[in-house]
């Protein structure tokens, strides 16, 4: 078969693929209303002088053997042989919007299986499987998923970060060569979130063509945008293998992680909304499909000082504040008096809990709350009974000193006995206690990860998945939170096995504004843990009043991260108020469409969530610094029904006096705040509403309701 042209289509996005003799994506862009396959021949390229005499396609596998001269999609060999595969299509199967292409290189004895699926949300998922057809192992250096980008996608956006400073966006213009993200930390990482966004110059929240990709993988990775010398562009993403780490034996198939790709003709919001919809419909699952309960997590309240009587008093107070799930963090197991010891000893600390955990759990349940507990199974402290019994269970390379991180080492999950030990201990914890929720932590990077002397970062990641799979199957009603010193393991693959993320150990509302906005490009609010912390933030020592902290935690999965017994009544009243406000609106927040709003003043962060039926909209305006201008710019409210009338209401505002004497920012409020006002959705979307002048580090919540 020659030049078969196939299309995957959705309401917003299409992908057009030429399947023979080599599979090549010709188009990934807006949905085409009038497409016919013969149109595709208009893109047949000229052959330029001064280079190869044949056309060089950027194929599905981006093989160098086609004269790609860029970063190839596959690199590997058999002791130096069979190192430049070129795959010829052998089979094509389209079922609805799912396409499977098989291809072979008989010379290199490799088979390629490519799976592409375009979801109704507009999200394209792609993965490749490479099968070794020969007796000797094929050493894999790289296997990537490559997607072509339109030549007009000249700008790149990515996220950098670190502990307590996750999801920080940055941008570059890319005219030539490559922009590359590489992560060798052995987990998704705070530093290199596995995503890249390319777009037309100055793409924004509401405008521009945007192509965003995310690699669903919780280990080492590499992502790249390449501008070829001929002007063509592509994005590439892969699991990154350490030297010698990966080989495929005869008959074995190695699958790439899934690449999730979202094209939007309407800027970043369109991209994110498709990702959110995809996750909601395909990945996010909550046992019992109930509303996300408001949390209280003990970590920043009591750290390692666990006294069951005191914890029960905390639980009493939490319940009185409206908390619905109470979580005991680090410090409950044998010998864990500080962060220098005891990881691996997953037995109850009977000195702290002489009567066991059950009385505390029963107490929490009697108060009508769910119960959660913290674990960090992948780790082992040098000062632990487990290490003393099994020093050889550490993930390391023989002959080298393994550095500790947070005083701990990593347990080698590839050792069957170590794996089984964890299954047994976690099953004791979850099977013999009435646990609803597990905060699963992971607090260090992998350095020289080794098993039998060979690099084993990839294998460790797979065993981590297997461990969660075994436990998830055994305890299907238990929810898992993925935490890794805050936001060090946030990705779509771990989300298939968990229910919520802890985005950051930084509960400073000012910092959280940026972190949460960064995370929102890829994740909807219901999986984003957002806790009200102590008024003097433990990560930054910055102080914020309860209104700013409460509103900042509103558009997420809300919780408290503090000891409610040590604060004054005014603070407690604040927790009560924001927990209630969150519950009042959580259905909209956890199911509606999220909008980030471009504001002329970069110090103003505005966002909204509009219910699916467009009857209700919530908008938060957060003023991060001193406003740049005397007046704040009007807030345009996207996502409403143009023809409908909406009532505008101030739902929550900071504890400042807004007017008159003593009011330091305004003599007069915007009129809609003084007298009831309605306006059409069209007007609110296009013209907007005047904003009150906000102090730095304050926020307001505005609601619109269809009348
Ligand atoms: C790191 C987490 O991010 C924190 O929330 C807390 O659970 C500590 N670990 C406990 O050691």
Portion of residues within helices: 10-25%
CATH topology term of the largest domain: Beta-galactosidase, Chain A, domain 5
> What bound compounds does this protein have?
(2R,3S,4R,5S)-2-(hydroxymethyl)piperidine-3,4,5-triol
Q: Which CATH architecture of the largest domain would you pick? A: Distorted Sandwich
Structural class designation: alpha+beta
Distance between the termini: 59 Å
| Total DSSP E strands | 37
What is the number of helices?
A: 13
Please compute the radius of gyration using only Cα atoms. Answer: 27 Å
Topology:
Elements: E1 5-9, E2 13-18, E3 24-30, E4 74-77, E5 88-95, E6 98-105, E7 110-118, E8 123-132, E9 138-149, E10 155-162, E11 165-173, E12 177-183, E13 195-199, E14 210-216, E15 221-227, E16 233-239, E17 246-248, E18 253-255, E19 258-264, H1 267-282, E20 295-297, H2 299-302, H3 308-321, E21 325-328, H4 358-366, E22 370-375, E23 379-380, H5 385-389, E24 409-410, H6 416-431, E25 437-440, E26 450-451, E27 454-455, H7 457-474, E28 479-482, H8 492-495, E29 500-501, H9 509-520, E30 529-533, H10 546-554, E31 557-561, H11 569-591, E32 593-597, E33 604-610, E34 616-623, E35 645-652, H12 671-674, E36 677-680, H13 681-686, E37 698-706
Parallel strand pairs: 20-21, 20-31, 21-22, 22-25, 25-28, 28-29, 30-31
Antiparallel strand pairs: 1-2, 2-3, 4-9, 5-6, 6-7, 7-8, 8-18, 8-19, 9-16, 9-17, 10-11, 10-13, 12-15, 13-14, 14-19, 15-16, 23-24, 26-27, 32-33, 33-34, 34-37, 35-36, 35-37
The chain binds (2R,3S,4R,5S)-2-(hydroxymethyl)piperidine-3,4,5-triol.
